[in-house]
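Chain A, query sequence.
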Amino acid sequence: MLSGSGPKGALISLKGQVWLLAKVVTAYIGAVIGAGFASGQEIMQFFILHGASGLKGVALATALFAYLGGYVMFLCTSLKSTGYKEILTLLLGSRVGKVIDILNLCMLLAGLSVMLSGSAAVFGEQFGLPARAGVLVVATLTAMVILGGLDGVLTANVFMVPLKFLAVSLISLAALRLGGGPVNLEPVVPAAAGVAGHWAVAGLLYVSYNMVVPVAVLSSLGRMVPRKIGVAGGVLGGLLLGAAVCLVTLAGLRHFPEASTYQIPLLYLAGRLGYGFQQALGLLIWLAILTTAIAQAHGFASRLAGGALKPYRIFGVGACLLALPLSGFSFAALVRLLYPLFGCVGLALLLALLAAPFSKFFRRPEKMLHIIKRFNIINRKI
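Chain A, predicted structure.
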């Protein structure tokens, strides 16, 4: 076991319960709010370009984030998982689960490279610093957090994730309150409507695209979080994610179509509020890159370590080193090349999560108990 879990069945104080809840909520939010979210570009493509219908997509995404967060934590705490392999096998079967498992590992490593490249872009374009320094700073900080074990990752999230969550929310609220016209609810022409022509498809794709890393992160908490706290944290984290998406969408609609012409729409909104806001947003985007990099390195390491601390540290630091060569490529080029693959794998995982509770298998508690016991036996053998 990595760290942070007390004796089985031990009573947890109210303060301890709140702390565990905060760890689950921030782990979930931190895995989703990456550079694309913090820049506003993801929200623009998936929701803002749909006008009023985009708000329906936001509502759908919020419901899915809340449901899936709670359900994933239910599965993780039931299986006492330390990584996502158990979850994939349970949802997809051993054969398909192995394929998705390998793809997930590759995606986490590739995603870490994208974050390192994104840090280089922010250092060079926003702060006027050497681009390579951006790569090395994020790689070093990520490795240092991983060396602290699971508690190090969760504690880093508890302090950093609320900061970037509040920054996104406050900038969006300020943009809604100051300047701009009324909220524009007219959709753009369907041919230009972001990643999908229909708001429901856009909402579904947005969640599937953003669930791969959260599943990898949340699955590592199965042994350290009681079921009720885990489920509550998953649901609350999903609702807060939906609230942030809604605020950014409303702010973007108020400043539409001007905001849609920018690569970083939130940077345009922050610029309307003043130079200080613009610089703060640059720091926010970099912070989002850092927390996402930590989440991806953690997901990679926890999958391969099997709950042991020393291998976890080795695989986590190794992931940072392996991600360095690919990080030399352009951030935009890596996103165009890799993110469509992320979406395809995420869609398979999303469909499995949505279908699982309605299958005959999950209506038989004794069957699930048998699988849980089998996983425990396998883990002991390993």
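The chain has one domain: 21-180+193-373. The CA atoms of residues 109 and 242 lie 27 Å apart.
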